[in-house]
Every structure is written in C-alpha cells, then in structure tokens.
C-alpha cells in the first residue's frame, strides 16, 4: 500500500480542492490542488505553516502559533487521493505543500495510477532534486527559491547542484517572494550565478491580505518592468482571502 501525507482543511479532511491557480506562470488556470504535509525549510512568513510548524518545532514563525500534527495532516492511500482528484474532472493538477518533492515515490505511484491524461505542476522550494521515477511525470516546475528574508540559513535554503540542474530545465520557472526592493539584488545575483534567463524569473509580493499585496505591487511592478522580469500577483488572496482549500 502506497500512501501520501496530506495537509487538511479540517481534521481528517485532506486539502484536495478545485480552484484557480493564484500565482505564477499559470495564474488563473483551473486546477486541482493536492497539498502535501511536511517541509524541509522554515520560512518565518510562510502562509501555510499548518503543513510543517507542528508542536515542538524549533524554527520560528511570525504567526507564533504551532499546530497539532494529527489535526493538520492525514495519511491516505494513493487510490483514495486519485479518487478525490478525479471527481473534479479537471486535467491540471498542482502538487503543493509544504514541500511535495519530499514524497516523490508516492507521487510517482499516484501519477502512474492516474494515467497520462493529467498535466502535472509542482510547487517546490527548489532544494530537492527530482527523482528518476517521478521526473517523467512532471510537466511544469514552479520553483520558489528562498531569499535571505525567509529566515532560513543560506546552506539550508540553497542547494547549489540542485538549483543549477533546475536552471537548465526547460520546465522550470523561478518565482521569488519579495518583501522589500532590496530583495531584487539577491534575485539578480542568483540569476547571474545560475544563468537563469530573465524570462523565467517571476517576482511576487509577499503578503496574505490584499492591502499588503497592493502596497508592494506599487513598487514591485515597475521594478519588474525595468529588469525585464515577470510579475505575478496572488489572485487567490484577492478572491478568497488567506484561507485553506482555496
């Protein structure tokens, strides 16, 4: 029996839902989201802390609330996950988290079960390499390498060999969370170091409410225009607020 560890909308209910993609190159596209539980980083501004900031976790988070692991995660057989995905009759799947690439053997088995009719997107922090078994299933990589303001040490948030491999992968888009104009300096340095084409760089304002996003967009959009980088909003925040299952 192959199983996946998923986040929950409420205790016992896996966070598998149908919505519009809210960020990145696929913004606005109807998709089925499968949110996995667990992460290898600890971003202090993370908007899904219930996927990893469990009671006893040593890392900081600005919300300062730790979550009960049993209430906020559930383990399901991949057949149950496949049935939940199929009910929406939508050909686009987004595996998100947390860090979904920590569970690649089960994801590969799930994709084998679902068959080739689905377009598979991955939302990842870019520190975990694709495995040989899972890589053929992936059509799009929405990578979000973390910058210094995330609160993670450089050695933790950046794996040089992994990021270099992704930089040469035509499926990869690089979305950076931006809280201050100075963050663009770090993005530019990463772009140069790893030869990431400007057209594959996307900047997104950090924020979990519309007012904050609009305030940061006021200076971030012109910055993107000047640099030749793409800009993305957070559509789901404007539509639904900072809520689970949206």
UniProtKB/TrEMBL annotation:
GO biological process, one term: tRNA queuosine(34) biosynthetic process
Pathway: Purine metabolism; 7-cyano-7-deazaguanine biosynthesis
Domain Radical SAM core: 26-242
Cofactor comment: Binds 1 [4Fe-4S] cluster. The cluster is coordinated with 3 cysteines and an exchangeable S-adenosyl-L-methionine. Binds 1 S-adenosyl-L-methionine per subunit.
Name of the featured protein: 7-carboxy-7-deazaguanine synthase
Keywords per UniProt: 4Fe-4S, Iron, Iron-sulfur, Lyase, Magnesium, Metal-binding, Queuosine biosynthesis, S-adenosyl-L-methionine
Binding residues for substrate: 20-22, 35, 96
Major enzyme class: lyase
Coiled coil, from the record: none
Name of the gene this protein is made from: queE
Family of this protein: Belongs to the radical SAM superfamily. 7-carboxy-7-deazaguanine synthase family.
Keyword RNA-binding among record annotations: no
CDD domains (UniProt xref): Radical_SAM
Annotated Mg(2+) binding sites: 48
Function comment: Catalyzes the complex heterocyclic radical-mediated conversion of 6-carboxy-5,6,7,8-tetrahydropterin (CPH4) to 7-carboxy-7-deazaguanine (CDG), a step common to the biosynthetic pathways of all 7-deazapurine-containing compounds.
Residues engaged in binding [4Fe-4S] cluster: 39, 43, 46
Species this chain originates from: Sphingomonas ursincola
């Amino acid at each position: 029996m192959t199983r996946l560890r998923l986040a929950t909308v409420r205790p016992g209910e896996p966070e598998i839902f149908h919505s519009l993609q809210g960020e990145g190159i696929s913004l606005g596209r109807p998709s089925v989201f499968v949110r996995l539980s667990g992460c290898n980083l600890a971003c202090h501004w993370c908007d899904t802390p219930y996927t990893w900031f469990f009671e006893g976790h040593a890392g900081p988070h600005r919300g300062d609330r730790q979550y009960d692991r049993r209430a906020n995660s559930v383990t399901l057989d991949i057949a149950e996950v496949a049935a939940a995905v199929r009910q929406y009759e939508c050909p686009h799947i987004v595996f998100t988290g947390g860090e979904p690439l920590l569970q690649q053997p089960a994801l590969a088995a799930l994709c084998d079960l679902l068959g080739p009719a689905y377009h598979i997107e991955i939302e990842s922090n870019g520190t975990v390499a694709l495995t040989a078994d899972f890589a053929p299933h992936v059509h799009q990589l929405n990578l979000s390498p973390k910058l210094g303001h995330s609160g993670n040490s450089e050695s933790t948030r950046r794996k040089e060999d992994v990021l270099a491999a992704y930089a040469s992968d035509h499926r990869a888009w690089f979305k950076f969370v931006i809280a201050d104009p100075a963050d663009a300096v770090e993005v530019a340095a990463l772009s140069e170091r790893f030869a990431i084409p400007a057209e594959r760089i996307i900047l997104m304002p950090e924020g979990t409410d519309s007012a904050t996003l609009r305030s940061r967009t006021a200076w971030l959009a012109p910055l993107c225009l000047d640099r030749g980088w793409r800009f993305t909003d957070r559509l789901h925040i404007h539509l639904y607020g900072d809520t689970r299952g949206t």
